[in-house]
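Why do we bother with holo predictions? Because pocket geometry can differ from the apo form. Keep that in mind while you read this record for zinc ion.
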Amino acid sequence: MKKKIEVFYSDDYAGCENGKFSFYFGYEMTFCKLHGKDTDCECENKEDCFVARVDKKEAMRLTRGEIEVLVEYASPELSEPPQYLMAGIMEYFKNI
Ligand SMILES: [Zn+2]
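The structure, written out:
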């Protein structure tokens, strides 16, 4: 069987892919609520984002702050990229 799953994380990002679906949270995907840019705004308002892609097309984007509002329980307390990634994935599947 061909291997297809990739999982990766570090201090400032986390992600996983299986070919069709790709989920990422971290510094490479951002959103600025003040200026509306999604990748290249350099101001201090930009937030790291969770991004879900299906067949390489973006299907959902949530900022760090939006995820924090959605999470009722996290242990340890919500802080690490893999936790934001997991919460984002759960929100994605809640909405499809
Ligand atoms: Zn900005």
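The chain is about 25% helix and 40% strand.
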